[in-house]
Every structure is written in structure tokens, then in C-alpha cells.
């Protein structure tokens, strides 16, 4: 159930934007918007209510196929591994390897995206996702024994896709359309996250475990292949400059840059994602023992998420971002508390609905603010690939930290009380993300 970040990336320079009035994008990126606008018969800088560009819509379509392929089977991969070993630690190691590989892929493939063909990197991400499910199909019920290979393959797929996606996303949007684009990404992700897992759960129950899992993994493979085909309609984008391998290190060493504080916020954001991305769905299955129940959980929580991502994407304005984030992070912590009463399908569903309502208030501003920071200055926009890599490294550092803490604790004790306190501790990390992002915003 990896979201990745959905949408995840890196950025650069000076202080965060106080509001939308001072924003200005790098001239070359702005030129691409203008060129696309002329072809579409309209101005490139979107005004309120104006539709997204054709390239933006195509990018949304590709991300939709990627989300659909993962939603069909991604929710059940950890369940599949759990049924083979029934070991939380193994699932933790699989996730840790995934995030470590993804971080290294971001850093290394930054050169590919910066100096060569970013669209091929995007396609490679979708293609390797298809390969992941081909490997799962090949190993079948013994797949859990190859969790290292599976974690590496899935990490490569996510790294290739999200690096290229975030660079292209930056190039096809501007500050006036970014919140709306992020809202659409969340809306599409929630839509496929609503239908696909429910459909998969129903198929597994009706067809039987062996045939059902094989069918949904095959279906995911086909969806990813279609996603690769659609990606060829995205135009090849310009490449300029030379990749700076050590920009992240140089940035973090500077005391007068907002990126140190922003990176701390991203680490805190990733900490929660690393564990909750796989643990909640797995807990639903562990406490119900039924894939259909997990599908129903995804259907209900994603339906709520769809509505609130749509509302947040339309209504969130720059001046409301800080307040929206504060409400979001506080509620994301409070919805964990029912677990201390009892962990059941009901309390997990309360958590899922609560997260669906309040996560958009937190995640959309976190993503938009950082991308706006990249585009604020000409120099940082020219280094957009490096800053996107830096963002992803920070997020994955947080995911690795959260997952490592999870493995360490579960290796010694896995009682319900320990699990609840562990989830509360890791789930409170958005408070730190808000603190650091607010501090950077005030700089």
C-alpha cells in the first residue's frame, strides 16, 4: 500500500514562499508553459477554474495507470508474504529494502533524468513495476523466501517512476496550477484505491487464494504495460546542464538555507509513511483473516479520501496552508488513540476514514510548498532534478528510520500494547513535520 508518495520530490533554495504573490518560475520552464499554451490556444499561466494543460492531463493518466496497477495488487503483496511466513519482521525488512533501494535509485538515476531522457526513466518505472509482479508470479507461494529480490525490484520501480514523474510534474505545472494538480493526483489515486482493492479482494475470495492472487498479479502486470504505452504520448522534454551529485550534501551543510529545515520536515513526513504505508492494511487482514474485508476497508476509506482530496485540491489556497497542515497533523495523531481501546475492524476503519479526511490537509501543502520553493528562483529551478532527488532522499531517510524503529521494536516485543505505543510514536511524526515546515515558512 505504498503511496508514495505519491508524489514525492526534491527542491531547492532560499526561504519558503510567504504567499502566492511573489512567485516566479524559471524562465525556461515558463517558456515551456507558454509554448504549450499557444498550442492549446490559451495562456499558459492558469487562472482560477482554467483546465490543466494537455501534458498535465497525460501525466495524470500515466500516474493513474501506475496507481491502478499498484492498487490492484500492492495492497495484497504484504498479505501474500504474511500468509507464507506470518512474520511482521520479514514484512519490515521487505519494506526497508524497498525504501533503501528507492533512495539509491533516486540519487543515481538523477543523472539519467538530468542529462539524458527523463521520459524513458518514467517508462522504466512502470515497466519494472510490471517485472515485479512477473517475479511474484514466477515464485508463487515461495515468493516470501525472495523478499530481498522483491524489495529491490519494487524499490527500483518506485525510484525510477517517482523521480521522473516529479521532475515532469514540476515542468508542466506552475504555482497557479500546482495545488489543483496535486488534488487531481490524490483524487485519481483515491478513485483507483477505492475500486481496485475491493475488486481484488472479491476475486481472491471467489476464485480461491491461489488462483485469485495469480489473477490479480497478472492483471497488475497488464495495467503497467498499458501505462507504458500511454506514456509514449508524453512529449520528450528538454535536458539541460550537468548533474550535481553532491548538491544534497552541500545544501545541508549551509546554515543559511531553508533546505535544512525543509529536509527535517520531509524526514518526519517519511517516518510515518514508511510504517503506516504497509502496516494498516496488514493489521486489517490479521484481525479479520479475510481479503474481502480488506477490500471493503480500502473501498470505504478511499471513497472518503476521494471526496476530501477533491475538496482540498479546489479549496486550499496558499494563505490557508499552515492552518490546514496544523489541523491535519493533529487529527492524524488523534485517530490512532482508538487502538488503545481495541484493535478491530471497526477501530481500524475509524482510523482509515479519519486519515482519508485529514491526510489531504497535510500532504497537499507539504508537496506544493516544496515544489514552489524549487521554482521560486532561477538557479534552484535549473537544479530542479537535484532538488527533487534531495526531497526524495529526505523522505526515504524518514521511511528508513521509521521502518528500522519498527523492526527493532517488533524483534524484541510484539504484544498489542507495544504495537499500539509504537504506532502512536511513529504516527506522531507529522507534528515534527509541521513544526519544521512552519519554521522554514517563517524564515
From TrEMBL:
Which segments show compositional bias classed as Basic and acidic residues?
A: 27-39
Q: How does the entry describe its membrane topology? A: Multi-pass membrane protein
The record ties this protein, via InterPro entries, to:
MFS, MFS_trans_sf, Sugar_transport-like
GO MF term list: transmembrane transporter activity
Q: Which Pfam families match?
A: MFS_1
Q: Which residues cross the membrane?
A: 58-82, 88-109, 121-140, 146-169, 181-200, 212-234, 262-285, 297-316, 323-341, 347-373, 393-412, 418-437
Entry GO CC: plasma membrane
**Chief place where the protein resides:** membrane
Keywords (alphabetical) are: Membrane, Transmembrane, Transmembrane helix
- What is its subcellular localisation? Cell membrane
Instruction: Indicate whether Transport appears among the record's keywords.
Output: no
- Protein name per UniProt: MFS transporter
What does the organism's lineage look like at the top? Bacteria, Bacillati, Bacillota, Bacilli, Bacillales
